[in-house]
Amino acid sequence: MTSVKQIANIANAYGLNLYTYSPGDGVTRYRFALQFEQDSYFGGNGIATLLGRKEARLWLLGYADAIDRQRSAQVGYTVQDFIAH
Question: Is the dihedral of CA 60, 66, 69, 73 positive or negative?
Fold first, then answer.
């Protein structure tokens, strides 16, 4: 299972900060925010707020994939192209 620290490390690699909040109802809230735009869970709205670690992990994987695809389009090749040659 992916730890909160692992999720935070991946988020940081993609220019995001991760904030968590556990209100006591058994479901931790995970908020992603662009780095330098928010300094705490309650410091702004962030770009996504998810309920539970599984949702946070899946959202981050989709975000990372979209960023990777965008970067590949800008340079004109994909990672798979690079590996194949």
Answer: negative
